């Protein structure tokens, strides 16, 4: 009976995060300053907490999780279950074994709490009073609002207007947790005012919202900026997902042939996959990794280049697979997948030939239809972004049916869709 | 570290439900027929599955949970964690110990899956093709839609119009799971048509929605009607909550002085409390039980009398604390607490002097304000109904602060509020 739901005891919660930096196939190209303008690197200590900056370039393979953070991880529901998708396997009549990690059983709806908690904890410990951040789909903003509420910090969230417009419940949840939420571009920052002057109905982008949050933190000595994806320390914190999952797969004596997750900035994909990348790099085993994306913003297919993380060029230049930091992307329901660049760590792995990628059409009907198959067999409601992971898992399982391969496929159900039903409604014409 | 989150292994999932009928202080008064009209009792086998009817009057103290149902319980996330609310205790500066059961970590949002799964399973096993039901808050309709999707049954849901009007996302979720959803009163049944003729904008009630669902099942030999609360078999299935919780409290060597839960029909209150009632009745210990209600429908303060379960008088007469089956109640955000009568089992315990009750004002601001305290300390978002449990727990903990009593207080977080943010928004003026 136990192979449907594979659990860990609270005592099995990992005590260390895994840092892949010392294990990358080639050393990570460092962040650099542009040739012109003020130094972005020198501004970093003004906007990030010291601990987080230290972790960003850390060379230790394992980094201890503070006991206060572990306690908050338990509070947030960790360790989370791993499910064997037996019902889905049966429906697809596939010889493949499908496993998914239940990150959606989160107090705010997604895996984002895994980095929100340590980031808020470190900022508080340093004596800061306030955090600023951006959010796209809203999952990150809610997660940081949650963490700030638990550790006792104020929070300002800049929310991409295209998404904020249709997610009132998520906005209210952030506000209930005590956060101040502003649509981005906003009138509160110079970059926001400039863009609104050009176009009063500007729909915004993650790069713009980041620029506004960074600007606000730069101007306030008691404020810390916090990013929910992309950076090394974010992926470090998220490895808790993959570390737990590895233990759980060991319990059932299994190991993935294929690891799948959606990728916007890379925190969810990296969180699940990085501990398995370690095995691949160290032992040369044959595990395949697939990052699922939207054709609207297929950043992994972009050039591996030095680029800014934000629209306003306030961040240092990072070596990333990027479509360009001023590239415009049309709104999609899976807004968490609408960012111009992939995390430097994932970009480096991609450049080393270790990451495959699939893009699904901008229309998204294909993706929501597969999410429906998942809902009706496994009973869990994926967030729009997680539906991209489900889609690849289903399609790969179908391939196995054709070829007869008994692949073990692992994917992450990074978030739930309770607050995103409009996506399902519109794309599947439900109740219309 | 482990006392924040107390977990059970999948192997610890109870193998039997607990049936309190043989242990009640006085024998349960049987359901009876009214003096006039056709026999309602004789119609029961036409509308309920055989197994459920058998369980309704069963005298065995323990009833085995079929292994298929246990497998689906695991699939739905059981066993669920018990949390010690240390952060809330600290915020309230109370000497009381607070524990809450995390039923809200449910694939559909509430504890209702616990009875939806066995009811759908038994109907399927009997060769039925379709189920009909009513729903108030929408949690029950979603849970049964989930269970029907997993076992492969069709489902029709009649949804109280006053609630259906403001919960489009929940409706879409039911539809995504394959259910057909109709606002009640509807034009599909004679009772619905009669009421709509009187008032085309009739807001409906649970009693009316039950009447429509019963009527549809009566007229279809391949259909089974399913009720989400009130009846003995429903409370039997829900004892899984309290049985798990007892094991979990034993792990931390604790036992409740006070058990609190909200009560509409009684499934959530009964589910948590019944295994503890057993100890009180058997051992005469001093545990207190508080059912929290809305002043709009304080059915536990009603007369202990034989009354119908539905508006249209199609059900047998049950001995219940009832306000009258045609009583009208104004809409509230916690619509799950808006039913005219309490479950016969809970009514009998109330009549025996074992159940206390508190009613909160129809306005609900008091309740949502306490839910906000809970959200900002524990980080979990209660459903409006569950906010009534949180409210009593907080108020009792505050009393302990005054008296210095170190009470152990247990309550159930029966559902989450991800799909009910409008309640928070309106009652707390969030983002307005």
- From the 3D structure, determine the CATH topology of the largest domain in chain A: Rossmann fold
Mean pLDDT of chain A: 96
Strand content of chain A: 15-25%
Largest interface: A-B, 54 and 54 residues
**Alpha-beta classification of chain A:** alpha/beta
State the end-to-end CA separation of chain A. Answer: 40 Å
Oligomeric status: homodimer
CATH classification, class level of the largest domain in chain A: Alpha Beta
Radius of gyration of chain A: 20 Å
Domains of chain A (count):
2
Helix content of chain A: 40-55%
Sheet having the most strands of chain A: 7 strands, mixed
Overview of the structural elements:
Two copies of one chain form a homodimer. The first copy, chain A, is of the alpha/beta class. Chain A has two domains: 5-12 and 68-110 and 235-428, Rossmann fold; 22-65 and 112-225, 3-Layer(aba) Sandwich (Rossmann fold), CATH 3.40.50.1100. Helices cover 41% and strands 16% of the residues of chain A. Chain A has 16 helices and 15 strands. The first copy, chain A, has helices at residues 40-47, 50-56, 67-75, 86-92, 113-125, 139-151, 161-164, 168-176, 190-198, 206-218, 232-251, 267-283, 344-351, 365-378, 384-403, 421-428, and strands at residues 5-6, 16-18, 62-64, 82-84, 97-101, 130-135, 154-160, 180-184, 223-225, 258-262, 288-294, 303-307, 318-322, 356-360, 408-412. Chain A has a seven-stranded mixed β-sheet, with helices on both faces. Chain A has a four-stranded parallel β-sheet with strand order 8-7-6-9, sandwiched between helices. A two-stranded antiparallel sheet of chain A has the order 2-3. In chain A, helix 2 (50-56) crosses helix 11 (232-251), helix 5 packs parallel to helix 6 (139-151) and helix 11 (232-251) crosses helix 12. The radius of gyration of chain A is 20 Å and the shape is globular. The termini of chain A are far apart. The model of chain A has no long low-confidence stretch (mean pLDDT 96). Chains A and B meet through helix 3, helix 6, helix 8, helix 14 and helix 16 of A and helix 3, helix 6, helix 8, helix 14 and helix 16 of B.
